[in-house]
Amino acid sequence: MSGTSRSCEAEGCLRVTREGKPYCLDHVLLNGYVSRMMGEMFELNRSRNSGKDPTGILANEVLVVLEDRGGAASVERISKTMNAPDTVIRKVLSGLSKKGKVTLAVTNRGKTIAKRRCG
Ligand SMILES: [Zn+2]
């Protein structure tokens, strides 16, 4: 064991965080940097195409979540992190997959894993 371990600062969360971060992965969205970034994306999308492309906003968020998790995450994990229903996340992921932004794989337990693709 090395380094300092600290626990998540989110209320009621006792998880130990990685690399001395203030929040666990589930609560990293509470972290100023990420939430500010997402806020900007929301605003951008809202002002640019009000309601035209509802999945566009989510697609950006999914990519942020994947990025935050080192490039890959299960649909379950993404939906929990974003507080969005699985069905919505699946729809967004299939859109991203068609655009070549992510690749989707199904584990032998039937979980869908999304991996971010570069370029
Ligand atoms: Zn937490």
Describe the structure.
The protein is mostly helical. 45% of the residues lie in helices and 11% in strands. The chain is built from four helices and three strands, in the order ααβααββ. It has helices spanning 32-48, 54-68, 75-82, 86-98, and strands at residues 72-74, 102-106, 112-116. It has a three-stranded antiparallel beta sheet with strand order 1-3-2. Helix 3 (75-82) crosses helix 4. The mean pLDDT is 81. The structure holds zinc ion.
Q: What portion of residues belong to β-strands? A: 5-15%
CATH homologous superfamily annotation of the domain at 53-116: Winged helix-like DNA-binding domain superfamily/Winged helix DNA-binding domain
In what order do the strands lie side by side in the largest sheet?
A: 1-3-2
- Termini distance? 37 Å
Mean pLDDT: 81
CATH C-level class of the domain at 53-116 is Mainly Alpha
Indicate the CATH topology of the domain at 53-116: Arc Repressor Mutant, subunit A
Stretches with pLDDT under 50, minimum 5 residues: none
Which geometry do the CA atoms define? globular
> What is the CATH architecture descriptor of the domain at 53-116?
Orthogonal Bundle
Radius of gyration: 15 Å
